[in-house]
Amino acid sequence: MGFESTLQYTEHVAREVHLRTGMLPHINAGVMGEDDLRRLKTVSASQGLMLESTSKRLMQPGGAHHGERLCLTASFSPLR
């Protein structure tokens, strides 16, 4: 469909849901940057975050999030 990222696709789908139904979805897309949060705020009722996606332990080999690119970024701190 021509989207550069999963978050662009998510934004598009959320906008379509709102236009077609009048409902605002809840988006639980994980760790996002400030720009992504601002964009999704316009098309959703809330943005969720599963804190386990920020666990360094779960990102180690054998962990549930090993190899995930969207988990814990250098600019994200769950204690901000």
Care to describe what's here?
Strand 1, helix 2 and strand 2 form a beta-alpha-beta unit. The C terminus is likely disordered. The protein is mainly alpha-helical and 80 residues long. The protein has a domain of 54 residues. Strands 1-2 form a two-stranded parallel sheet.
Spatial order of strands in the largest sheet: 1-2
What is the H/E order? HEHE
Structural class: mainly alpha
Mean pLDDT: 79
What's the alpha carbon Rg, rounded to whole Å?
14 Å
Spans of 5+ residues with little confidence (pLDDT < 50)? 73-80
Largest sheet: 2 strands, parallel
Shape: elongated
> What percent of residues are in strands?
5-15%
Name the assembly state: single chain
Secondary structure tally: strands: 2
Helix content: 25-40%
**Number of helical segments with 4 or more residues:** 2
Tell me the span between the first and last alpha carbons.
Answer: 36 Å
Give the gist of this structure:
By secondary structure, the protein is mostly helical.
Entry keywords:
mainly alpha; 2 helices; two-stranded parallel sheet; 2 strands; single chain; 80 residues; 30% helix; elongated; 5% strand; disordered C terminus
